[in-house]
Amino acid sequence: MPKKRLSVALVVVAGVFAVLAIETLENWSGKPETETPLLLGTNLWLGYEPLFLASDLGHFDENSVRLVECASSSQVIRQFRDNTIQAAALTMDEVLLLRERGLDLRVVLVLDISQGGDAIVARADVQDLADLRGRRVGVENSALGAFVLTRALKKVDLTVKDVTIVSVEADEHERAFLLDQIDAVVTFEPVRSRLLAAGAIELFDSTEMPNEIVDVLVVRADALEEHQSHLITVLRGWFQALQYLEQHPDDARRRLSVRIKLTPEQIEQGQRGLRAPNLQENLALLGGQPSALEETASRLSTVMVDNALLGKQVVLSDCISAEPLMELSAR
To answer: Which CATH number belongs to the domain containing residue 320 in this structure?
Structure first.
């Protein structure tokens, strides 16, 4: 899936964040919390799997946090917009689109930055990107798919009008490709690795879009106070899962392989195409005025406007919230 921008400086000023945390925690409190769990929606993407690893390791009580796996990012967006779920794992371009439509949300965590995990793969007879002219290209009906395809085609002076777009939901990418219903597909891990193992070739990946595909955790603004402790549970579980992946990689990949139907070796290879910022890096990304993440989102917004993927420049200055991470850090 997605996700890149221009470089982001990861400078952590520990003293400043400590002071900010103390000042902010009093403000980020108040209303009694609901007894209902926080519903967090995701689609199948290797970068989101630490959430399911955290659940498998017992860090999420189903009375406080429930993961809702959707067939595609489009479905995640619909459920988030309709308030069927209160939190969601989304790409930054999807966040910008939701903000353009007026949805009040808060970005509370950078989950991962794609460094090769998103790609365009094609049948072996497709020689290169230029050879996509007139070909059938499968794309999920989402901002990310359009964004990646637009950026790739621009490299060879093509536009989406030069290819035949076939709308394919994420859970159908592999099937449509193997049944010869499409010649190429804009996809992501774990489907990328499975198609490459089946003989597909890679024409383009997110290493050519540095820092433009960023995955984030967002929460509806009207649910933020109501689910404070539940959100802290999610954040703590996320970083515990990242730590487990680092300290017990073999067991972690074995657990994930059962869920996403990749071998542990394929998971290891796929993880090389992702970078998951740790707690201090996240504090650096989300903290400050403007935050590094806000500046990154602004650059992405400009790219999307230039490519007609957004109708206007979108600013996220009031939507990026480091307070939950600060509370976690202070505990």
So the answer is: 3.40.190.10
pLDDT attached to residue 289: 85
Cα separation, 129 vs 5, in Å, equals: 21
Summarize pLDDT for 107-144 with one digit per residue, the tens.
999 999 989 989 999 999 999 999 999 999 999 877 78
In which residue are the tokens 């007894």 written? 35
Residue 3 half-sphere exposure toward CB, CA atoms < 13 A: 33
Running DSSP on this structure, what letter comes out for residue 219? Answer: E
**CB contact at 8 A, 241 and 123:** no
Spell out, as residue ranges, where the chain has pLDDT lower than 70. 1-34
Among residues 100, 75, 236, which one has the least CA distance to residue 170?
75
**What pLDDT does 34 receive?**
60
Residue 161 within any structural domain of the chain? yes
pTM above 0.85, yes or no: no
Which range marks the domain in which residue 173 is found? 118-208
DSSP run (H or E) holding 114: strand 105-114
Q: Domain boundary residue among 208, 232, 258?
A: 208
* Residues 117/260, Cβ–Cβ less than 8 Å: no
CA angle 304, 142, 237 (to 5 degrees): 100
The C-alpha R_g of the chain, in whole angstroms, comes to: 19
Residue 322 · residue 294 · CB < 8 Å? no
In what order do the strands lie in the sheet containing 136-139? 164-167, 136-139, 184-188, 118-122, 201-205
